[in-house]
From TrEMBL:
It comes from Bacteroides stercoris. InterPro entries: SAM-dependent_MTases_sf (IPR029063). It comes from the Bacteria. This is SAM-dependent DNA methyltransferase.
Length: 198
């Protein structure tokens, strides 16, 4: 995906504007979000196996000095997924843009036909400290129909700035997940609904 395509799609003039532009899209009108999601898929040849933003983000927006951010190559994510070969939930304490989660998700999806893979059986819990990474992480997970919890905060200090729930209401691997700003004790319950805390 070329930088110019990203600028045009998200109506930005500088890559530093990307996180805010993505957040506006994912928090805005669902129809507009879905149009952009479909266009992103088309621009990337419908290849969902890797983080489309990684190269752009790595070169331009990373916070290596301030937050010691580094990026996991896709091949390492695939290798880790193959080594663990696990089923069930995933916990990623330093998610970044989600490249490790995407690699594992792709390896899991490849084992099933689309109608045999259910996002609710592969719940993700992840943390990310960087405010610039959170919007792209949320987009990367929701465009793939992944279900789970995203904590914007410090996993080491257990400080949460914001919790998000990714809910794939139809439990459809080929569908998108809704992104819901949640209270700390809100959780996904049976029938893919959210149980809200008071």
């Amino acid at each position: 995906m070329k930088k110019e395509e990203v600028f045009s799609l998200f109506k930005i003039e500088d890559l530093n504007e990307l996180p805010n532009a993505v957040m506006r899209i994912i928090e805005g009108d669902i129809r507009e979000r879905n149009i952009i999601y479909h266009e992103l898929m088309r621009m990337n040849g419908y290849d969902m196996s890797y983080d489309w933003f990684q190269e752009l983000y790595e070169n331009e927006l990373s916070e290596r000095k301030q937050k010691k951010q580094d990026f996991t190559p896709n091949t390492l994510g695939v290798l880790c997924s193959k080594l663990t070969g696990q089923l069930g939930s995933i916990h990623e304490p330093t998610a970044g843009n989600g490249s490790m989660i995407i690699a594992d998700w792709w390896q899991r999806c490849r084992k099933f036909l689309p109608y045999e893979h259910f996002p609710s059986q592969h719940i993700v819990t992840c943390w990310e400290l960087s405010s610039r990474s959170i919007p792209i992480l949320l987009l990367n997970l929701s465009i793939r129909g992944i279900m789970g919890y995203v904590y914007h905060g410090d996993v080491l200090e257990n400080i949460v700035k914001q919790k998000y729930i990714l809910l794939n209401a139809h439990d459809d691997t080929l569908g998108f997940s809704d992104i819901i700003k949640a209270n700390i004790n809100d959780k996904i319950v049976c029938n893919n609904e959210i149980e809200r805390s008071i």
